[in-house]
TrEMBL record:
Transmembrane segments: none
Protein name: Alpha-ketoglutarate-dependent dioxygenase alkB (Trinotate prediction)
Domain Alpha-ketoglutarate-dependent dioxygenase AlkB-like: 6-177
Organism of this sequence: Henneguya salminicola (Myxosporean)
GO MF annotation list: broad specificity oxidative DNA demethylase activity; ferrous iron binding; oxidative RNA demethylase activity
Keyword field: Dioxygenase, Iron, Metal-binding, Oxidoreductase
Top-level lineage group: Eukaryota
Cofactor(s) it depends on: Fe(2+)
Chain residues that bind Fe cation: 68, 70, 134
Record carries keyword Oxidoreductase: yes
Gene3D superfamilies: Alpha-ketoglutarate-dependent dioxygenase AlkB-like
Amino acid sequence: MGYKFDYFTHSYDTDIHRKLPDLLITLFKTISMVLGCKNYNPEISIINFYPAIGGELPRSKCAGLCGHQDIYESNLQNPLISISFGQPCIYLLGDDTKENEPIGFNYYQFLSLGMYFTNGDIMIMQSEARTAFHAVPIVFCGTKFQNTSQITENNETKEDIDVINYLNNFRVNINVRQMF
């Protein structure tokens, strides 16, 4: 949502812009105000979907988001704000250099700080963290939300049931950033 990102050229097409939903703008502006970023203008939102996995994943594979930087916006001074929903994950954060080639078991050795994110967690990348390499190598399966057999008793809709079933098997991350 917002400016369209071209993953092949690693650039935004500023001619294509779709306004973010008002609810999303209000939510992320409120979070930024708590940080003291009074002029934060959410212009871009990227929504990532990750399947949860069971069992062990070979270390040479990437179940979620492989190591990368988010450095393509014109304004890197403002924070990148992220909210996670659904299944938990491991989030790895490094610095702004990637000295080692991502090969086999060493793939994530350039990422030094590991964090465990669960449903509803908010992460803010600002200052040095804004240009740091980061990754989501694994999404765990195990968190189960409301038992869908009980939902009909609570007057939940089919759409509610679909969302709960989806979040029982996936992680969704919504992140917002300012372009200019």
